[in-house]
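Protein in question quoted for reference:
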Amino acid sequence: MNRDLTVGKPETVLWQFCLPLFGSIIFQQLYNIADSLVAGKFIGENALAAVGNSYEITLIFIAFAFGCNIGCSVIVSRLFGSKKYVEMKTSVYTTMISSAVLCAVLMFFGLVCCDVLLELIHTPSEILSDSKLYLNIYIWGLPFLFFYNIATGIFSALGDSKTPFIFLAISSTANILVDILFVAAFDMGVAGVAWATFLCQGVSCVLAVIVVLKRLSGIPTEGRVVLYSFEMFKKIAVIAVPSILQQSFISVGNIIIQSVINDCGVEVTAGYAAAVKLNNLVITSFTTLANGLSNYTAQNIGAGILPRIKDGFKAGVKMVWLLCVPLVALYLVATKALVTFFINDPSELALASGMRFLYIVAPFYFIISVKLIADGILRGAGLMKNFMIATFTDLILRVVLAEILSRQIGYIGIWCAWPIGWTLATGLSITFYRRGPWRKAA
């Protein structure tokens, strides 16, 4: 059901809205780690390295889908908060049409440039064939990725975090089962891992789009709803394009870092592939909650209730820190078990590199979580310039430091680039948040 985030005690409203998001986080991460888990356990270390290597490129496509999600979600939240339902429906249809065109362009680019992209990141010859196979199948599933993200963004904009949770729970569980079926029973190798994701994401996408269109048809409107508006497209683009650029540059930065890691050999690449999945589990969890705060911020700005933004920030920080405590403790205490969870009989170097990544990065989750909450508010308020400055500072520092420090102390230097970039960028995000239009609101 739809939920108005502009009424009620901010902390209570956010907890009720974000509680299903906590569940979504678990299943989203099951979706994300299933391919690597099955590849590492049922195929081997090289298969895990191939899937992890391709994953860095898939993040570019995910960045575009995420940008479309955020652009639509923020605008729909504002219009829903201000009760402008005709314009709200126009924004949804405009996003869907524009995203379809963008998706087609990306598919063409991805299929044509697949080999070039893998060569650019110095993919080891041992895993090149499997990396290309996984990536090609993934690209054919991009329409499902785009429209599923748009549908979940609309649900969140309407204050409904339960429906996306249900879809994600079913889809991610099915993905794991089909992964195992295709790989263990049908012996399809890396192709089985990719096709499982393709099929499960396709089914969940179709169902999510059907439900969201039905939900929109149930909202009463007066007058004709325009299917495509260039003016609405520009409003969406103001939010979507910076989000796409932010995520794309992060992905490009990660690809550059991946190329530095690949130069350290297949064993370090495999260790990193396992550890970075665990890291992404945490970062995606924080980002999901931050996206919820973006919807909260956009609805309250649409309704003109600025004082609620500051209360939302405090509640958001409290939520992510409650999430940090058990995760940081788990990563520091059960490090070896977590890394070996992805790899059967890992080599000594693969195990050591994965464990050291978590030892270095995990304590700084308390810092990066605050940055992502502040960024969620900046994005929901449309303060995209400040949002991008803080993000690019983190990215540039991590890429440059990874290259420099790797020459001095090897792969450990690459791992050290994460906390340095996070810390400095968090300072910028908090500064920008404190300068927001809500600072004097009583």
About this structure: The chain is about 85% helix and 0% strand. The mean pLDDT is 83. The CA atoms of residues 72 and 244 lie 12 Å apart.
